[in-house]
Structure formats: structure tokens, C-alpha cells
Amino acid sequence: MTCILLLPTALLLARYATPLIVTVFGKNYLPAAAVMQIHMLFLVRACFDFSPAVRAINKTRALVFSNLAGLVANACALAVLLPLAGIRGAVVALVFSSVVEAVALGIQSARFYAVPLVSFIPWKNMGKVAGAAILAGGILISPAWERYWGLPGIVSACLLYLAAFAVLLRLAKVPEAEFLLRRVRNSVRSILPVADV
């Protein structure tokens, strides 16, 4: 479910980082667009969160170990990347350390539950979600949305992308997508009880 929410968000923010930064902060902040695009990898990494698994069995010491592993990885990466690439290097170091933290916690979680790490993650459904996000991304390739229609074109492209993503998830029969769709329908019905949704 985290992937369903985060993957399209990361893709949209990475694709339209430049106009978003310029619109919100002005042209002086244009170099921040590349930083934002790199940071979207942090959102993708957030799809792999093992902390609920260790909290559920009260093995929270694993969180301390994985955070320490991430801290050491961050310090090492910063020492190398900050002098080479400045703020971009710092963001790459952040993404790298978060991956190290996730891998460390994932290995410990798999050991606690006595299952292989590859079996601990629902790869099939996550693959379907990633495939839907990438296929729907074809809508965003054209620069015409931004070039000819500006901000309204970007908003239209994003809405069309999200609609295509939702349709592809439906076609792929991802159970978590069906659950989210039911929740949205129920929420709309509670807000508009008269409407036939």
C-alpha cells in the first residue's frame, strides 16, 4: 500500500521538479530541482519499511542497530560525496544511508521471522505497482503539457497520469489497490450520502 501511494508521488515530483521549484520559489532556486529529483529516490526507498515488523514482535533493538548502520553509511558517504558534489552529494548520501538502514533492518526482520528476505517482501504485487507507475508514466514524457499549457497543462498531465495508474492497478488486480478504492468510495459516500457513487 505504501508503494501505491509513494511511487506515483515520487515519479510526478521528479518529472515536474523544475516547474514546481520555479513556481513556488522562483528562478533563483532552479538548481534545487536536481536535488529534489535525487531526493525522490528516498521516497522509493520508503516503500521498504521493516520497522512495523520488528515493532510487532517487540524487537526494537534492531531499529537501533539499523539506524547506527545508516548513520555510519551516511558519514562515510558524506565524507566522499560532499566535497565532490556539494548539496547533491549530501542528498545522494542520505539516499544511500537510508538504503543501508533498510537492508540492515530487513535482514534482521527476516531472521526474526525465520523467512528468507526475498520472501519477506510481496515482490509480485510490488512489481505490478511499479509496472503500473512506469507504464502510466508514458503520459508524462511529452514536454507539450508544460510548454504549451503551462501550469494547467502540468496539473492535467498529473491527473491523467493518476487516472491511468489507477486503471492499470485495477487491471493488474492488486489487492491493496482494491482495498484503497473501497476506502475512497466509502469516504465519498459518507461525505455525499445522496450521491450514487
Describe this structure in words.
The structure is a single chain. The protein is an all-alpha fold and about 200 residues long. It is built from 9 helices and no strands. The chain has helices at about 1-15, 15-25, 30-45, 50-55, 60-115, 115-120, 125-135, 145-170, 175-190. The radius of gyration is 20 Å and the shape is flat. The model has no long low-confidence stretch (mean pLDDT about 90).
- Total number of helical segments? 9
The percentage helix is over 70%
Question: What would you call the shape?
Answer: flat
What's the alpha carbon Rg, rounded to whole Å? 20 Å
pLDDT averaged residue by residue: 91
Structural class: mainly alpha
DSSP, total strands: 0
**H/E topology pattern:** HHHHHHHHH
- Termini, distance in Å? 23 Å
- Strand-residue proportion: under 5%
